[in-house]
């Protein structure tokens, strides 16, 4: 009969599967990567690995654990490595190999195995879903998401691929929605931090602005939002051209026609917000993205103020410390 410690050891072992593969290119070289899904308790993540990486792990473990008689599909010397049937058989063999490794505690805890499965770096992905710590520290309070709220949406609707931004209340993930394989930027906010800092009003103001942005081509828009016990999720447009700040650092200066083009589109975006009595208040190169066609897209509306007419003024000290001196200087010259 297994001991309690043995049962606990077994329950902590991960489950793995290799459900699919992708073909990729790197400097004109074509290769196949295999998607390895790993789950431990309530946490789940995935990693892409090439056959050569499986082979390297196999050779390391084979030398250290000869009695295990580990096997992986042999290298193919002749024939088409991209033949669908060949790849299917190879994927099945790699699946059996990795399943056997994680079923054996000594193998599973080998440093090379943990590195291969990213077992010590999974917190970037678990931040995007519910875990036991979240449940133990639950605020158990809902925040009214208004018309943007989707009661049927949940974190498991998405594959969270990587962190693309961080802020005071959470992170922004590049995520792929499973049912249609569309890419989104999903902003994940910690309710506990929002409530402790009494920032509900600002978060909802940001949501309100995002909802209105869907109607303008130069403003990032909110598709819908949802929440769990401890987190808020904003499903946003994914803009893949990078920050204007990055391009400015790389190129140092822009030709005048290009600068005028960006300024005109920024003016259009800000003018639209002003027509809705919204003041942006955080304009900087880091908050200006470029889309795949080179158009600007304004993002990050956390400092927006609603209900401001043309004759109104504000006195709030807000913005980014690095550009405060420019704002103060402009006021002193006015």
In total, the number of strands is 12
Unreliable segments of 5+ consecutive residues: 1-11, 128-140
Number of domains: 3
What's the mean pLDDT score? Answer: 79
* H/E element order: HEEEHHHHHHEEEHHEEHHEEEEH
Q: Give a quick account of the main beta sheet: strands, pairing sense, barrel closure.
A: 5 strands, antiparallel
CATH structural class of the largest domain: Alpha Beta
Strand content bin: 15-25%
Number of helices: 12
Helicity level, as a percent range? 25-40%
Shape: elongated
Q: Describe the strand arrangement of the main beta sheet, using strand numbers.
A: 4-5-6-8-7
Walk me through this protein's architecture:
Helices cover 36% and strands 24% of the residues. The protein folds into three domains: 4-123, PX Domain, CATH 3.30.1520.10; 131-236, 2-Layer Sandwich (Phosphorylase Kinase, domain 1); 244-333, Orthogonal Bundle (Transferase(Phosphotransferase), domain 1), CATH 1.10.510. The strands form four sheets. A five-stranded antiparallel sheet has the order 4-5-6-8-7. The chain has a three-stranded antiparallel sheet with strand order 1-2-3. The protein has helices at residues 4-11, 51-64, 84-102, 105-108, 111-116, 123-126, 132-136, 191-196, 200-213, 244-251, 256-275, 321-333; strands at 15-26, 29-40, 43-50, 158-166, 170-177, 183-190, 222-227, 231-236, 278-279, 288-290, 296-298, 305-306. Strand 1 and strand 2 (29-40) form a beta hairpin. With 334 residues, it is an alpha+beta fold. It is built from twelve helices and twelve strands. The longest helix is centred in the last third of the chain and has 20 residues, at 256-275.
